[in-house]
Amino acid sequence: MEFLELAKRRYTTRRYSHRPVEQELLDKLLExxxxxxxxxxxxxxxxxxxxxxxxxxxxxxLTASTYGAPLVLAVGYDPSKGWVRPSDGKNKGEMDxxxxxxxxxxxxxxxxxxxxxxxxxxxxxxYAAFPEMEGFEVQVLLAIGYRSDDCxxxxxxxxxxxxxxxxxxx
Length: 170
Ligand SMILES: Cc1cc2nc3c(=O)[nH]c(=O)nc-3n(C[C@H](O)[C@H](O)[C@H](O)COP(=O)(O)O)c2cc1C
Prior knowledge:
There is one protein chain. This protein has one domain (19-147): 3-Layer(aba) Sandwich (NADH Oxidase), CATH 3.40.109. The protein has helices at residues 3-9, 23-34, 53-62, 93-110, 123-129, 163-166; strands at residues 45-50, 71-77, 114-118, 137-145. The chain has six helices and four strands. The longest helix has 18 residues, at 93-110. The structure holds flavin mononucleotide.
């Protein structure tokens, strides 16, 4: 499939089937994550795989946006391992994690899986629920799974600004 076709086909999934994500597909998602670029190739990432009943119960208590997905990946980085830009002191691990999460989201689409990029949760609650994540900066939760038969894109999916509105040539 052409990349642009894949990018246009993707939409935020908000209805999942109960079917578990096979280990083989999870391995591919993690492989897509592993090959992502990072600032100075520092690879400060860490991904937590949440799919046990106990882990899913905890994450579902933190956000309404998992929509019954059988798998959630918490994507973050270790600030002590990210590249810090000397000119402004910004840790680029944040950007590295976002790029990595985007790789995962698009790989999910390529594998026929749905994905929800979840930003609506309270980080302090996440760290309290999962002390293993303390010391890291979790940037995004990705809910992933097979879409239910009645899953459809929201009206916002088709609502995009024109190229001319978001670009300028200088
Ligand atoms: C940074 C970010 C945070 C988001 N947080 C949530 C969320 O918490 N819950 C949710 O259902 N969708 C969330 N979304 C999905 C957006 O609402 C969605 O991408 C947007 O409405 C466009 O729709 P589309 O993805 O179907 O094209 C988030 C997306 C991004 C990029």
